[in-house]
Structures are given as structure tokens and as C-alpha cells.
């Protein structure tokens, strides 16, 4: 770790560094504790025309930017044009940054927690909410003990091992400012996905004169995020689910094993499989032990598939057909999709990042304090269920996490978000039907930054890379290369859809073919 960025060659063609930043940006003490931010950079391919460095945040909150860049940084580089360095960083408390928001003694203990917690669908008609609250109380208490300052700390001391009150997005946005300062870069260039769009709104609001080229992709409204209620996210989720039946029908019996004579009949067939699983779950033996395919497990894996339809819809169809046939042998091949697994390795695997509770440490700390009340929760849950009856029971756990999270940040930005005078306009990009960050939120966030642009992609899934589109990629490239914004009302189509394949009208140029191939590969590796 260093107060300056000293790059070291790492992995295959990457550079790594550890940057020391203040744990508490509000402290003037020269002896104040510090945090270490892990950085990983893919140098620009065109070393003679480097336009700067683009910081990447893959979302979460809690996703590792260093892991992301290592896995798909080259795809980002191809999309933006090859003359930018692409830099992933692990926000404080996450990934390889230290101290980590690890609440449990080891990954093994965290896995034990995961075997029981957040595995049931929520309902107001049984004990599922009470059980979910119990698990979140356990996590909240454990994290309070490990991540927050307690009686073992000397008066006024901030232990380097207790980052819980210093993981707010305001602190992370300021870390980003520190990173570009250390890079010698006056303005932030940035591509943020999902929660990364919230982080981008924090930065653009707090430091409007340091805004360079900011792409916010799969936009969640930061003002809504502050409420910490996690409602309003499922407005378009059922439309994404409906696309599964539509594209299965369009693909035909040769490409979709669930094919029926209409999308409605396909949906009826899927819901009949769900009903059967509710009454009679399927036991499955697989390499990592016993598993049980239940209605809850099916709904959870379906919800995950809705994030990246091009990558997971075909697999989901195979699982559904196997469940319909009660084909335990085939289901065993897919058990990782619906069964929690455990690793009993006592020694950490080199390069493997530890599990943590960074989501709660960031999202619940950023939000307004919330508490559980049976009557208000019942109203909340019914309202969310009216948006998506099938997936509200999955998504509702996020709100319960925050009701039991008691660590409050020392520094928290409370809004309002937006700025009429950012030094450069932002580019917001959103699928027309986003799984968890609906277009309505993208429009609300965009309206708070006058002069910025909103590009809509006519696709289904979470973030625009979930559906390859040369049109969208070319607009993003033009923005990074010369600041060109799409005209108001611009909408791009998808060039590949589930079950059907490519939908490109006519031949592509050599450059567009290469770009489409990059986008297709990117869609299959994003988290």
C-alpha cells in the first residue's frame, strides 16, 4: 500500500496497485486510520494515443471491480475504442480492499449462514417474514460486533479493523476523486453499472466540476435509493419474464424445448411446473451433495436469469423441461443453479476474494434509517407484490436486511441529487425493460442533470450489455471518444435475442461484426 499509485505488472497484461486513503475523510488527525483500495488496470491498446483512464464499477453494491476488469476489461476496452486505460477498483470494504466487511469468522461460516438465510420466498401468510428477520438480525448483530467500534477501542480511536461506519457511497465517491488525483487526471471518466449508476450520481452531485465522460448504465435513481426501502424496482420485471415466453415462441420448437403454440401456452406450461414443485419438490443427488428443487428455488433461479436473458434463458428452459419430466439425472447437471453449495477448504485459495456483507454495509448505511413494523411492512409488501406477484417474495429480503442493520455511517450524503452545471454532460443508458432498475428511474435520474442524455435500448434484462446492440455500443464509443451525445429520443435495437439468435438486418461491416462479437462475448461474462 502507498499514498501514491505504484503500478506492478500482474496477471496477463494487467497492472495492479494498492492505494492508501483516509478511513475518515472528516478527520484532521495525522494519525487517523487508513483504508487500502485495490486497483487493477488494463493499459490502453493504443499506447501512442492514450485519452485517459476510465474507472469501472460493476454494481452490487459490493461487486469487485478488480475481478470484473480481469474477466471482461478487454471487452470494455474494445467497446470504448482501445485508447483508454480501463481501471477497476474494489470500493472500500469489498473485494481485495482492506479492511474488509467480513462479518463472519471465515468463508466457511459465511457459507453456513448462506445455507439458511435468504433461501425462502417471503409471504404474509406464513412464518417466512419472521424467519427472514431472524436471519437478518443475526447478520446485523454479527456485523455490529465485528465492523463497528465497541468497548475494546480506546476513546477516540478508530480501529483499522472496524470499517463499518466508513463505507458510505460518499466516502467511495471521494476515493474515486483521490484515485483520479493520483493518476494526474483532472476529470473522472467512468462507466458504472447498476449500483454503479448510483455511485456515479453521488460523484456528479458532490464534485460536478470534476465530471469528464460518465456513462451510467442500468440506472437506479439515487434519490429513490436513499429511502432504503427497495420498492419501485420491480416495475418492469414481469415484462422481462414475459419476454421469456415470447422469445421461446419466436425461436420455435427447434430452439426452445418448452415451445407451445403461443406465448400464453408456454407460460401456462411453466406455471404448471411451478405448481407441481410446490406440492412435490424434486430431490436431486449431485457431485456436491443432496439438493432439492422447490418452487422457491425455481423462482430464485428464474429471477437471476432475468438479469441476463441472452445468457440464461436457454438454461432455464432446459431446467424447466427436466423438472417437468422429474429427470433427476439431468437436474443434477444444473444443481449449481438452484442449490447452495459449500466448500470445506479450511485454507483460503490464492487469489480468491473473501465473502462479505458489503451490500448491507454500503446500501443500508447510505439509506435513511428504517425499522420493521408489521402493519407498514404488510402495506409495503402488498404494494410491491402488485408490481410483480412472483418476484416480490424474492426481492423483499433487501428491505428486511436494512431494517436489522444498525451501524450508521459517520459521513453520509443525504441529497438532493443532481446538478445543472456538471463540467461535462452525463450519458444515461437503460434497457426499455430493465429487471430491477426500471426505465422510470432512469428518466427521473436523467432529469436531475440538465444537458445530459438518455439513450434507451429496446431490450430486456439488467444493463445494456445484457442484450448486444451495435447501435448502443457505437453511441457509447462516440461519447467517450469525442463527447458526442445521442439526440433526444434516440432508441437502439438489440442485435441478438434469446432462443432466436442474431437479428441483424443484412450484412455488417467488418468493424461492426467485430464489435458485435465483442458485445456477445461481454454478455456472457458480466456478473
TrEMBL record:
Residues 53-219 form the AB hydrolase-1 domain. It comes from the Eukaryota. Residues 389-492 form the Peptidase S33 tripeptidyl aminopeptidase-like C-terminal domain. This is Alpha/beta-hydrolase. InterPro entries: AB_hydrolase_1 (IPR000073), AB_hydrolase_fold (IPR029058), Pept_S33_TAP-like_C (IPR013595), Serine_prot/Carboxylest_S33 (IPR051601). Keywords: Hydrolase. Belongs to the peptidase S33 family. SUPFAM superfamilies: alpha/beta-Hydrolases.
Amino acid at each position: 500500500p502507498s499514498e501514491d499509485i505504484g503500478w506492478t505488472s500482474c496477471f496477463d497484461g494487467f497492472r495492479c496497485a494498492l492505494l492508501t486513503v483516509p478511513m475518515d475523510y472528516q478527520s484532521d488527525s495525522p494519525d487517523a486510520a487508513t483504508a487500502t483500495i485495490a486497483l487493477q488496470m488494463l493499459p490502453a491498446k493504443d499506447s501512442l494515443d492514450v485519452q485517459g483512464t476510465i474507472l469501472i464499477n460493476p454494481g452490487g453494491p459490493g461487486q469487485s471491480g478488480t475481478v470484473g476488469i480481469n474477466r471482461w476489461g478487454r471487452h470494455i476496452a474494445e467497446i470504448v475504442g482501445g485508447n483508454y486505460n480501463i481501471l477497476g477498483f474494489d470500493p472500500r470494504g469489498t473485494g481485495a480492499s482492506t479492511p474488509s466487511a467480513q462479518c463472519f469468522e471465515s468463508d466457511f461460516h459465511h457459507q453456513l449462514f448462506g445455507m439458511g438465510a435468504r433461501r425462502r420466498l417471503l409471504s404474509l401468510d406464513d412464518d417466512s417474514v419472521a424467519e427472514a428477520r431472524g436471519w437478518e438480525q443475526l447478520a446485523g448483530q454479527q456485523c455490529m460486533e465485528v465492523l463497528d467500534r465497541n468497548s475494546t477501542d480506546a476513546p477516540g480511536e478508530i480501529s483499522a479493523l472496524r470499517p463499518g461506519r466508513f463505507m458510505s457511497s460518499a466516502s467511495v465517491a471521494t476515493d474515486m476523486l483521490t484515485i483520479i488525483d493520483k493518476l494526474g487526471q483532472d476529470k473522472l471518466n467512468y462507466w458504472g453499472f447498476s449500483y454503479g449508476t448510483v455511485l456515479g450520481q453521488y460523484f456528479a452531485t458532490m464534485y460536478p466540476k470534476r465530471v469528464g465522460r460518465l456513462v451510467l448504465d442500468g440506472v437506479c435513481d439515487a434519490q429513490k435509493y436513499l429511502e432504503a426501502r427497495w420498492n419501485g424496482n420491480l416495475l418492469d420485471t414481469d415484462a422481462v419474464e414475459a419476454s421469456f415466453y415470447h422469445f421461446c415462441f419466436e425461436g420455435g420448437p427447434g430452439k426452445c424445448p418448452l415451445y407451445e403454440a403461443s406465448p400464453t401456452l408456454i407460460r401456462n406450461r411453466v406455471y404448471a411446473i411451478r405448481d407441481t414443485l410446490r406440492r412435490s419438490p424434486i430431490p436431486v443427488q449431485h457431485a456436491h451433495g443432496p439438493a432439492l428443487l422447490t418452487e422457491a428455488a425455481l423462482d430464485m433461479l428464474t429471477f437471476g436469469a432475468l438479469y441476463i436473458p441472452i445468457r440464461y434463458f436457454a438454461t432455464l428452459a432446459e431446467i424447466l423441461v427436466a423438472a417437468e419430466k422429474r429427470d433427476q439425472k439431468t437436474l443434477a447437471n444444473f444443481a449449481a443453479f438452484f442449490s447452495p453449495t459449500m466448500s470445506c477448504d479450511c485454507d483460503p485459495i490464492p487469489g480468491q476474494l473473501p465473502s462479505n456483507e458489503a451490500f448491507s454495509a454500503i446500501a443500508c448505511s447510505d439509506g435513511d434509517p428504517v425499522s420493521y413494523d408489521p402493519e407498514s411492512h404488510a402495506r409495503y409488501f402488498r404494494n410491491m407484490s402488485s408490481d410483480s406477484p412472483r418476484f416480490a417474495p424474492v426481492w423483499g429480503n433487501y428491505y428486511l436486511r436494512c431494517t436489522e442493520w444498525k451501524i450508521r455511517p459517520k459521513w453520509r450524503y443525504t441529497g438532493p441529487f443532481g446538478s445543472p452545471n456538471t463540467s461535462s454532460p452525463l450519458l444515461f443508458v437503460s434497457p426499455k425493460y430493465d429487471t430491477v432498475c426500471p426505465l422510470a428511474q432512469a428518466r427521473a435520474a436523467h432529469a436531475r442533470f440538465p444537458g445530459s442524455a438518455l439513450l434507451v435500448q429496446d431490450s430486456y434484462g439488467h444493463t445494456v450489455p445484457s442484450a448486444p446492440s451495435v447501435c448502443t455500443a457505437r453511441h457509447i464509443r462516440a461519447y467517450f471518444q469525442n463527447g458526442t451525445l445521442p439526440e433526444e429520443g434516440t432508441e437502439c435495437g438489440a442485435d441478438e435475442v434469446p432462443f432466436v439468435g442474431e437479428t441483424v438486418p443484412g450484412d455488417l461491416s467488418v468493424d461492426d461484426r467485430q464489435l458485435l462479437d465483442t458485445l456477445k462475448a461481454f454478455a456472457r461474462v458480466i456478473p
